[in-house]
TrEMBL record:
Protein name, as recorded: Uncharacterized protein
One GO CC term on file: periplasmic space
UniProt keyword terms in alphabetical order: Lyase, Periplasm, Signal
Species of provenance: Sorangium cellulosum
Family matches, as InterPro entries: Chondroitin_lyas, Hepar_II_III_C, Hepar_II_III_N
Pfam families referenced in this protein's UniProt entry, alphabetically: Hepar_II_III_C (PF07940), Hepar_II_III_N (PF16889)
Signal peptide region: none
Residues of the Heparinase II/III-like C-terminal domain: 292-485
Residue intervals of the Heparin-sulfate lyase N-terminal domain: 150-261
Highest taxon listed in the record's lineage: Bacteria
Amino acid sequence: MTLPRIARTLAHLHPIQALARPIALGQRALGRGPTAALAPRLRSGFAPPSPLFVAFAEAEKERGRARLAAIPEGSLLHAYERAYGCEVGAEPTLPAPSTWDDPIAFHPYPASVRARRLAVAARLGRPGLAAELARACRAIARGLELHLLANHLLENGIGLACGGAVAQGVEAEVWWRLGSALLAWQLPEQFLEDGGHFERSASYHLALTAGLLEAIELGRAAGREVPDLWWATARRALAWATAVRAPDGTYPLFNDASFDSAPELDRVLALGAALGLFAPGGSPGAPPNAGPSLQHLEATGWVILRFGQQAWLAFDAGMDGAPYQPGHVHADALTFELWIRGERAVVDFGVSSYKNDPDREATRATRTHNTVEIGGVDSSEVWSAFRVGRRARAEVRRLEHGASHVAVDAEHDGYRALPGSPRHRRRLALHERELVIQDEILGGERTSACSRLRLDEAALERQSLAIEGVQLALTRSSGVWHPCFRQPRAAVVFSGCGEVRDGWRGGIRIRW
């Protein structure tokens, strides 16, 4: 840790974060779990819910159980997951209250997730939840995560809105109004023009979209006036989810995304359809024809390239997450993932740790992503578990849609602090049977450049892929990737390194 790096990190903070942090630390040091005294009564007489709503709740219960079982006991993340209330589903068995008496259970974020799950269970007819719902909502209301903002504060608002929807009385009205006020503030801030969440992680996007859909359903069932903003935001968020839906029904794993940390994409779309927000026409994410096509999610900074049923590619050429909350940012400027004939072949490293340890450092490092590393340093100055100092500024320079291919050109300046201020320029050209990657380093004094490509080992063999360097000698090594948190799968890594002398060029061709 160095003072200049700390200064570069703090320079991006929102003023509210700086003002709220001392308050949050004080509350955590002095606070005790809220009581359940005089808990508001829960509403009754709800109309029967949609079968899709019931199925979604049950699927979330099973997903929560599986994820909890995969996380090492004794870790902070395990304590958080345990406090989320994964036991609460369509037909929950409420655990002993001591399960949620751990102080971590009343940190605002896990309390927010738990409040939402308790509210859904109450909507589905589970009795005896008033006390625990009151404790969760009271914990949120007294500890809003203004020091973090971003997805944490939005989850606070969703939890309060859900709790306020299913309860009644003066305190429940406070929860509803406070949650609604937070959503009125944060939804326009956090969901971009193209519908994507501003932290640019598909997992967090899906989790928040699902929470918003549940708040809409609960509010409507309770006879509340659901704001137009909620409906409009959910509609755009579902459209974004459709755009990033890969042929196998999953999504890109950029920026701490994983398959087990959020609801399944198709289940979220189905929940949206049940609310009349999404009309599935054919297969979501399917190409419109057998030829090449592309879609630029401009606000997010992602480009989707397709070639019929042969190939689907997601390219990250956008900014590093939310300006003031880059906790899930990786040093992965101009990385990509590639699906061949419906199977994920070129893979993101995924997430192996949230602790401040070597695994977390590797998770976020440039060297573990499908891009170019210059001078042995990261393209963005990631440090600690969730910090970023200097950020790469990436932009799409050109999109090309030909009769037999689609291509994208982009560049970033993440290495501008190195001697000669080198810039990385990349072109991806997708054809029916091949992908050509062309990299160029503009400027820069004498240093090194390494291009890397990580492929799922099984897909490499099944798809009979041929990998060759273009003006670049490649070496092959063994590696891993993590489609689910801390659940590695075998990978093969191809690397090509060279010396930068006032510029550098190299590339990789993938044939199938």
